[in-house]
Amino acid sequence: MTDSKPSMSDLAKKLNVSKTTISFILNGKAKERRISEALVEKVLAEAANLGYRPNQFAQSLRTGRTNIIGLMVEDISNPFYASIARLIEEKVYQNGYRIVYCSTENDVTRGKDFLTMFSTLSVDGCIVAPTQGMEQEIREMHEKGKSVVLFDRYFGNDGTDAVMVDNQGGMYRAVEHLAARGAKDIGLIAIALDDPEKEDRIIGFKKAIADNGLATYVFPLPFKGGYEEYLQDISEIFSRNKLDAVVFGTNYLGIAGLEVINQMGLRIPDDMAMISFDDHDLFRIHRPGITVVAQPIEAIAQKAIDTLMSKLRNPALTKKTAEVITLPTSLIVRAST
Amino acid sequence: MTDSKPSMSDLAKKLNVSKTTISFILNGKAKERRISEALVEKVLAEAANLGYRPNQFAQSLRTGRTNIIGLMVEDISNPFYASIARLIEEKVYQNGYRIVYCSTENDVTRGKDFLTMFSTLSVDGCIVAPTQGMEQEIREMHEKGKSVVLFDRYFGNDGTDAVMVDNQGGMYRAVEHLAARGAKDIGLIAIALDDPEKEDRIIGFKKAIADNGLATYVFPLPFKGGYEEYLQDISEIFSRNKLDAVVFGTNYLGIAGLEVINQMGLRIPDDMAMISFDDHDLFRIHRPGITVVAQPIEAIAQKAIDTLMSKLRNPALTKKTAEVITLPTSLIVRAST
DNA sequence: ATGAAAGCGCTAACAC
DNA sequence: GTGTTAGCGCTTTCAT
């Protein structure tokens, strides 16, 4: 009936031992406190028997640590982020942490709200794919000693750790590949949240186009939630420009683009060669297969966690070193090029 | 420098007011406590000024409520669950809750671990796509007064709310559709965690096969993490049986199946007609398009949240009513059939 | 080798 | 109208 959780006091009372002792034993400090084997046994046994679980909130209130990690991505339903979330989940649980996630939808306000939430929740650290406009807030968290690891996007030299991917290089090789296959009019359709001149994927694209002496067709698109709108935008781009190849800056643009191409009855790669950033089941299985610039998802997750965990374990590090890791992408050539 | 968060005491000291008063004001109980307008203003202003944020842990410790909701799915990186997670996130935040998620991988032990974690974390409620074998634990949570809403899978009449989908009916109509198109040897490739006789999708399939006087080809597969293994299993099934149509019980089996079909050079729908449970970008965009039994993702998320929120708002309900909502699936016919 | 006691930040019954 | 006070369950210093 009164099945409510047993507290440390319950244990203490039942065993005629003080809370202190119980606490030490349960926290593995029995040795250094020289508590007798016998007592340790007894306490452990009774704790197990009663199904005792420490109250995380009391614990957090006392210690200031929460064992919660915040994960902030653009959209948790995007397979790229979902896969990362899955991997991070796996690795984080092994270290006794839990994850609270949220999707920013590239909205600064949402992003900041969530940062506040993380702060309110007192997460021990967080892994964030930031939107732009959050620079200030991220820096503040960092300065307050919270461990933050950025990925997917970051802001120059602000002292925050980041796990990035070689976006410029990846894009450069994609264009190179297309050019080598004889493409002349290569378009780039990519999200530009901010200034297109600052987007690495766009920069890499332009550089490759220039190096290959080709004409530049860049179509920066603002971020919008709706898939339908992208279909619309892309089909307009296709009808107004006679391209023989196209590169998409993200998986969802690639997907939308592929749908448009198919709808318009364009043949890949004869009428239109195609490459998308990010691999996806769709790109692998589609006939013809779609060439992609794949991001090393596993490595991104691993590095992000490793970085965060090492800061968490050694808080002194947090304020000091800031490392920006850049992981290579890989061009997976399929029949679309 | 000492930028650590201001507490209620700080506020109280600064304004020469007691914590009590602050607490009441901040919790919107100023009216009923008949606190003067002026004071309310002053407190609110100073709170905003100092950037005061209540300490969630102290709050939780005191009230027993945490504003955290646990979300447990089979695999957060599966688009079906990821989409649900996204929608649930959206709806939940509007109500001031946060989400902690975890992926069971259909592993009972993991599932139970996470349930314990939810319990330790004192989540206010949870939305769970259970694995089998968790019946007992779910029932216990429920009996302890925790709000639990199941989806995707549930255990008969155990008094827990559940949001389900008409799996039998969806599968039935898929087979019916195939039969109407002249398919004779229709195979079903589906995960059977437990007894295949208890899996609704398999039941629906068999019923439809019987009603249409066809031969029964059911290939229950155990759940395994690895995609490669499914490829293997499926291609064996295809080489050992001469089917003219196949139905896949879940999106990842459908994806693997499609990959196998393409690899084997089978033509859809001439050599092999195909239907998969769950819609997916891949099925929509693939040429030919793949007919699917789509689940109403949005509705599932909405119902789950609605149910949970109403229980949370009115705890008295929790122990009483248990509702099993069954949502319809829809057959989206494409070129694969 | 063990325990008493203070206090983390907050809420709410009960005074005044 | 506003303040006092007693905890929520835990950790940890200091005493014994």
UniProtKB/TrEMBL annotation, chains A, B:
<dbReference type="GO" id="GO:0003700">
    <property type="term" value="F:DNA-binding transcription factor activity"/>
</dbReference>
<dbReference type="InterPro" id="IPR010982">
    <property type="entry name" value="Lambda_DNA-bd_dom_sf"/>
</dbReference>
<dbReference type="InterPro" id="IPR028082">
    <property type="entry name" value="Peripla_BP_I"/>
</dbReference>
<dbReference type="Pfam" id="PF13377">
    <property type="entry name" value="Peripla_BP_3"/>
</dbReference>
<dbReference type="InterPro" id="IPR001387">
    <property type="entry name" value="Cro/C1-type_HTH"/>
</dbReference>
<dbReference type="InterPro" id="IPR000843">
    <property type="entry name" value="HTH_LacI"/>
</dbReference>
<dbReference type="InterPro" id="IPR046335">
    <property type="entry name" value="LacI/GalR-like_sensor"/>
</dbReference>
<feature type="domain" description="HTH lacI-type">
    <location>
        <begin position="6"/>
        <end position="63"/>
    </location>
</feature>
<dbReference type="Pfam" id="PF00356">
    <property type="entry name" value="LacI"/>
</dbReference>
<keyword id="KW-0805">Transcription regulation</keyword>
<keyword id="KW-0804">Transcription</keyword>
<protein>
    <submittedName>
        <fullName>LacI family transcriptional regulator</fullName>
    </submittedName>
</protein>
<keyword id="KW-0238">DNA-binding</keyword>
<feature type="domain" description="HTH cro/C1-type">
    <location>
        <begin position="7"/>
        <end position="31"/>
    </location>
</feature>
<dbReference type="GO" id="GO:0000976">
    <property type="term" value="F:transcription cis-regulatory region binding"/>
</dbReference>
